[in-house]
Amino acid sequence: MTKVLRTISELRAWRNGLPAGARLGLVPTMGALHAGHISLMELARTHCDMVIASIFVNPLQFGPQEDLARYPRPIEKDIAMLEAAGVDALFLPEHTEVYPPDNSTYVVEEAVSLPLCGALRPGHFRGVATVVLKLFNLTQPHFAFFGQKDAQQCAVIERMVRDLNVPVEIVRGAIVREEDGLAMSSRNVYLEPVQRLIAPLLYQSLLAASAAYEAGERDAGKLEAIGRAVLADEPGINVQYWEVRDRRSLAPLQAVGADGCLIALAAYLGKTRLIDNIALGT
Ligand code: AMP
């Protein structure tokens, strides 16, 4: 049975009741779970004795024009999926449980959170870093699991953990994709049928750059041109960014060196914003 913990005091009591020495893994989510989330639960199980998931649609990481109100919240289905995955506990707090009305303390990372999604979603990573540090303090896990799907989020959290000496080991899980290559996302349900048909082009653009890289291309501008060309003839895809970056610092690259690179993109299909990425090299 997955124990559903709705308050901080329930969470603390559950945490305090764990056997001494039990290694605890946390998988933070916003719910509307899919196989990508479940892969993180399974990864957590291989590292840990006990696994706790959290579901909290964190208002602090949504911009005023974003999809907070319509974000999917199929909580009964989510709980059934966590049960099936053998997750030990779920932290499912209300907004008021997480943020006091006069909350005035935030976590701001000032380097890796700036480019890419950070530049286009002001305050987003401040919201992410703040809620993740709160979840770490509440849950006190030994390990926490995050998807490479949100590569910049991983980089921000790893930097925060390093800079603030947070005693949690961060583990990244691989991107889980639909059969046609579309990265799984809770937001894919927003896609209209015709948008869903063209959405796999995003991954195909990354694969085109990857193929060029494998064939020896190292010039970042050329890789970008090859990737963008896959999307250029599709008016239904509005690319926000498509960039070759250093994997850890997310700094722009002129050429891909021995450390490889991250290629990350964001695009609108109608009103739905999707992100994807691929790591190339070592
Ligand atoms: P979210 O509920 O979107 O905040 O995602 C919760 C966690 O699941 C984050 O660490 C995401 O990176 C991860 N995640 C989301 N989609 C995928 C996916 N397709 N494959 C692997 N992990 C994912």
Polypeptide structure, described:
The protein is built from 10 helices and 9 strands. With 282 residues, it is α/β, with parallel strands linked by helices. It has 2 domains: 171 residues, Rossmann fold (3-Layer(aba) Sandwich), CATH 3.40.50.620; 92 residues, Pantoate--beta-alanine Ligase, Chain: A,domain 2 (2-Layer Sandwich). It has a 6-stranded parallel β-sheet with strand order 1-4-3-2-5-6, with helices on both faces. It has a 3-stranded antiparallel β-sheet with strand order 7-8-9, with helices on one face. α7 links the parallel β5 and β6. The longest helix is centred in the middle third of the chain and has 16 residues. The chain starts with a strand and ends with a strand. The structure holds adenosine monophosphate (AMP). Adenosine monophosphate binds next to α2 and β5.
What order do the SSEs take from the amino end to the carboxyl end, as H and E? EHEHEHEHHHEHEHHHEEE
Count up the helices.
10
Whole-number tally of structural domains: 2
Q: Average pLDDT value?
A: 98
- Indicate the overall shape: globular
Task: Specify the biggest β-sheet.
Answer: 6 strands, parallel
Q: At the third CATH level, what is the topology name of the largest domain?
A: Rossmann fold
Helix content: 25-40%
Strand order across the largest sheet: 1-4-3-2-5-6
CATH homologous superfamily identity of the largest domain: HUPs
The count of strands amounts to 9
Could you tell me which ligands this complex binds, including any ions or cofactors? adenosine monophosphate
> How far is it from the N-terminal to the C-terminal residue, by CA?
40 Å
Contiguous runs where pLDDT drops below 50 for at least 5 residues: none
The whole-angstrom Rg is 19 Å
> Which class of secondary structure composition applies to the elements?
alpha/beta
